[in-house]
Predict the structure.
Amino acid sequence: MDFYQLAAEARLHAPDPYLVATQLPRYEPVRLAVGEGVQLGYLSNLGFESTRGSMMAYLAQYALAPRMLVFKPAGEWVLGNFTEKLDYAAKGKELGLAVVQDFGDGLILYRRTK
Amino acid sequence: MTSLALALAVATGCCLLSPVFPPGRSRPAWLGWLLLFCAGAPAGIGLESMVYFLLTWAGAASAALLWGASIALLAAGAVIARRYAPAGEAIEVPANQNRHLWWMALVAAAGLSLAAVSVARTASGAPHGDWDAWAMWNLRAKYLAGPDQSWRNSVSRDLQSWPDYPLLVPASVARLWRMAGEISTTGPQALSLLYTTCAVGLVFGLLAMARGWTAAVLSMLPMAASANFWSQASAQYSDIPLSAYMAGALGLALLRQDRASLMAAGLLASMAAWTKNEGAVYCALLLAAVFYFRGKDRARPMLIGALPGLLVVAAFKLMLAPRSSLLADPIASLPGKLFDPSRWMTIFSLVADEIVNMGIGVGHPLLILAALILAFGMRKDSDWRFPTTLLALQIGAYLGVYLITPSDVRWHVGSSFGRLLGQVWPSILLTVFLAMQVQMGSALAGPASKSRSVR
């Protein structure tokens, strides 16, 4: 009885604890801009070892499937997924990437220049 | 369209298993229908997932072809149902002799109702399921439902979420999406709730027909109290589907002796192997246990029933799946892990924590189970080595993986053992209540056999 009460209360206070439903629309512009057969690399200010960082990466992967999103800044196309305002162009340049499109809300599409 | 696609798979499975659970010859008839649905639905969904996977691999999984294949499978199932309909005597539930049954039934019904409400609220609050649903199972379903060669992403080495795992659940979800023509949360949610219903219904139905109403009703008390099991009901993971296949295969292998039932047990065991790697271990152990404890005459039809599914699993494992990340560490490191006492202590301590977390307070399912065993006692006329050895070896396999895992053992045990307990929990309840001294006699010896012993 206690468990069911706790479970129900937990869901009332946090119905979607990973914010999946609210996060998916954020990736919609990227989904529309990138072809379904394209493979994307991944670049973020949050490391994969943190729960928030890995959650963001997996959510991006889920939102953009069937496009393949690989969790490293490799390949011709790379998705930037940032939680803070940075100099995105400079961040990409360090890895040989140029900004192709800024979708807003920390989402950047990079293309490898070298 | 999602409902129709799901209904076609369920109906196909029910047709295939109708010679095993003929509802028209069950008394009461509703119990026959319950068993047929709870065993037939997982069988049909599993079969359709294999067809979807093979058509996708062949580059032919168009919506039109999928609808055609589903209708053809249903027609074939109907022919089998008609051709192999058994003509034996009616199957009757042993009469209840416990005068306290009515209030036990009320308590069990209240517990299951609370669990159902909790599951419904959780499902509506998180329509995309829990972490592994969107990070792994439904992610792979999206790849499988994608255009052209994108299905190969579901087995890509670049995936960090166990790309070597078999594809029953992702392929079932992808089939629903492809046939409906849209990606929605309805399909995976429906599958998750359906498998939960089937796992619980199989425990109840098999016990009712084998041991009578008292055993069936009593088994629902620890089932309803299993917080760990119900918390997974709407998670959209593969563990509850696996638990349904495991319980169904074990129940048929334990209780039935006729060829059709043993073939159905093999079919369900092969579906377990197609669901998760743990299911492959279970399938192998079950076949070996039947061979060892029941002899080759029982093992042969089981193997025949399992063969088509195992061929699909073998093709997937040998030709597509990447090497398991469990084997990432060099073999030379294994003795150090296996003979490290602190590693054993860590694992047992974490496992104990997870067992405690199966429930809360005096309503803990293991306390309820212990109280019922003390109150009723266990039967002394049967040999329970078969199911207990099987389940002990399965749990031993889980612990063995923890010993050799290349991942952080604390993370690995903490993030998985609760789910693994959910896999075996219906089978444990089935075994314990079949052995409990609550009702003698069995009505589930199968149309072709009079034997009622459970060894």
Notes: The longest strand of chain A covers residues 97-104.
